[in-house]
């Protein structure tokens, strides 16, 4: 249920009040932004220096424009838990490029027991270094990831929530929605490329 104007103004004022000592994250994604009024990640400046040599477990087409990539390996035994909505940087070494190319992907899930890292990635076909690799990778292929980078989580105690973004933001938005309490209120707006790109997300009723 959408709150009354008075309650909405109160919610926005509470989010913006600097006396609460909370940071607002503004993640620019195309024409959209994802807003969260508190960062709960434990990001440190040198975290991205942590490097993990892993292998492709499987890839799965979630929708016409979203692919799920599962990575595994002993190196992930030291990967920190509870980093969903954060990101890792994947290293690519294309033959036609003189330098290593890095691309960032959102952490959708991490199974600490199975040492399995799941990334949801927008499928661009074979356009670009990462897209071409994703379209051709096979189980057992080696890959290097760095991270994790900062999580993007909203404060679950907020009065009201507004999450918006395009498909590149969908994995982080999904993590946030699934983490909210059942009585949470607000709106999530996600721009998708086609009707078939809709996903079932465990959002509050």
Keyword list:
six-stranded antiparallel beta barrel; two-stranded antiparallel sheet; 3 helices; disordered N terminus
Model description:
This protein is an alpha+beta fold and 205 residues long. It is built from three helices and ten strands; from the N terminus they run H-E-E-E-E-E-E-E-H-E-E-H-E. Strand 1 (25-29) and strand 2 form a beta hairpin. The termini are close together. The relative contact order is 0.23. Mean pLDDT is 79; it is low at 1-46.
Describe the secondary structure blueprint for this structure.
Layout: H1 5-16, E1 25-29, E2 32-36, E3 51-63, E4 66-72, E5 87-92, E6 101-111, E7 116-122, H2 129-136, E8 142-149, E9 161-165, H3 170-179, E10 186-190
Parallel strand pairs: 9-10
Antiparallel strand pairs: 1-2, 3-4, 3-8, 4-7, 5-6, 5-8, 6-7
Radius of gyration, whole Å: 18 Å
Number of helices: 3
Structural class: alpha+beta
Largest sheet entry: 6 strands, antiparallel, barrel
* End-to-end CA span: 9 Å
Spans of at least 5 consecutive residues with low confidence:
1-46
Strand order of the largest sheet: 3-4-7-6-5-8
Q: Helix share of residues? A: 10-25%
Mean pLDDT: 79
Please indicate the percent range of residues in DSSP E strands (runs of 2 or more): 35-45%
Number of E-state strands: 10
SSE pattern: HEEEEEEEHEEHE
What is the overall silhouette?
A: globular
